[in-house]
Design goal:
The chain is mostly helical and 457 residues long. It has 20 helices and no strands.
Length: 457
């Protein structure tokens, strides 16, 4: 294990680039750090609540407008595909655009487009409705990508020594958005119709824009020569990208499929469908701070969190239907319990990934600074978005052709493959390092053996 890895909370930064006073001050938050956390919490909460309100009622509303399950999945997936492309571009040019400007402008675009999405019920059914859904979701994805890419970079810049702990703590607000979005969206939809949920939440996001303009600190940085290709072609980073992709694909699969399954299987009204989402969101948000703290304090455990989280996610998706081969009748209490376990297992894998990529980049000579943080955050968001595109798209198709039970079991295969691959990689890496250290220190072993033999005589 390298010295940086053994340093616990300071493992994410090179030892020669960290002032000694920084470690002493890390326990006491500065005003800039508090403002940064407040701004990031606002984007985590507002973006997730706007994203998650679609789940309980939009699939059924889109079906009334002539969209099939496959097209509903594509509408959800379109957001992620545009997010993927935009995150790569914005992450690469973060230092040129400015992190604060990117953050605030992304929130503004997202708020405006959320309001526009609430006007789509006025559009005629058929191709025009479907086409405008794609267009508005794509515009929303651009705003979301800008805000989240800047958010990750600013957080890593403000909290260089405990980024996983801070990310995990702020996932509480992500979870709150996921928790409140479905029931709030379902309630507003049932009470006031299609437009009100989007107009209300879009206005909330727009109100937060001037607030963040005032409180968010400005971080400047010199552009670096490092590129996405240099980063992603590192074997370990490539494997971690596949982990991000698989987790996001599993989570995104639930967006267009789970509400329809609950409505048909358990005969719940739309307002109660959102409450079922609470199991996943609550377990994820409540476990994330603890998992982030473990990831920072015990960086050697990150690899095992990644492996066990992936395998646990695969098992949970196999049980979500459950898979028809098990011949188990699906029940509401069991469905909610599996969702709770999925939320915890996703946190086990998702929280350690960002600091693990940063650690790998520093080990391979990348320059420290906001430019690298932009690359890593852009790459993280891009891979997450790619999975969020594949999950709903493939999930909608499989759900239409095979049914939810088989579709969820197949979706769990992503997590199974990456969990096994990550385990094999880390075991191989540990074996290689062990053999390499023994080859580089034969003289030390011989001297120790001679010393011991001399002392015996």
């Amino acid at each position: 294990m390298s010295n940086r890895e053994a340093d616990g909370a300071g493992s994410e930064r090179p030892p020669d680039g960290m002032p000694e006073a920084l470690g002493e001050e890390s326990r006491r938050l500065t005003r800039e750090q508090l403002y940064t956390m407040a701004a990031t919490a606002s984007i985590n909460f507002s973006s997730m609540i706007c994203y998650s309100i679609l789940g309980p009622f939009f699939p059924s509303e889109a079906e009334k407008k002539g969209a099939s399950n496959t097209f509903v999945g594509l509408i959800f997936g379109c957001f992620a595909l545009v997010n993927f492309l935009t995150s790569l571009i914005l992450g690469n040019y973060l230092t040129h655009i400015g992190a604060k400007f990117m953050f605030v402008s992304g929130m503004f675009v997202s708020g405006c487009v959320t309001i526009l999405f609430g006007m789509l019920d006025k559009v005629p059914s058929g191709p025009m409705f479907i086409g405008l859904c794609f267009l508005v979701r794509a515009m929303d994805a651009v705003g979301f990508a800008a805000a989240m890419t800047a958010s990750f970079s600013i957080l890593a810049k403000a909290f260089p020594n405990n980024i996983a702990t801070v990310l995990g703590s702020l996932e509480i607000f992500t979870g709150l958005g996921l928790v409140l979005g479905p029931p709030l969206g379902g309630f507003l939809y049932q009470s006031f119709g299609y437009e009100v949920p989007f107009i209300t939440l879009g206005c909330v996001v727009l109100v937060l824009v001037p607030v963040n303009m005032c409180i968010l600190p400005k971080y400047d940085s010199i552009p670096s020569k490092d590129s996405f290709w240099k980063l992603i072609l590192l074997p370990k980073v490539l494997l971690l990208c596949l982990t991000i992709f698989s987790l996001s694909a599993c989570l995104g699969f639930l967006d267009p499929t789970m509400s329809l399954f609950i409505l048909k299987k358990f005969k719940l009204p739309a307002g109660y469908v959102g409450l079922v989402f609470l199991g996943l969101a609550l377990s994820y948000s409540l476990s994330s701070p603890l998992l982030g703290l473990i990831s920072d304090k015990r960086p050697n455990l990150r690899k095992w969190l990644l492996v066990s989280g992936g395998l646990m996610t695969a098992l949970c998706f196999f049980m979500l239907g459950p898979a028809p081969v098990l011949h188990i009748e699906s029940q509401l209490w069991m469905f909610v319990l599996v969702l709770v376990l999925i939320g915890f297992s996703l946190g086990m894998s998702a929280i350690p990934v960002f600091p693990e990529i940063l650690h790998c980049a520093y080990e391979n000579g990348f320059e420290e600074g906001l430019s690298l943080l932009g690359l890593v955050s852009g790459l993280f968001n891009a891979m997450w978005s790619l999975g969020a595109f594949a999950g709903p798209t493939l999930g909608g198709f499989l759900n239409e052709k095979l049914g939810f039970e088989w579709a969820s079991a197949i979706q769990g295969g992503w997590a199974l493959l990456t969990g096994l691959a990550t385990g094999v990689f880390y075991i191989t890496e540990a074996t290689r390092r062990s053999s390499s250290s023994s080859l580089h220190n034969p003289s030390g072993n011989n001297e120790e053996r001679t010393h011991l033999m001399g002392s015996d005589t």
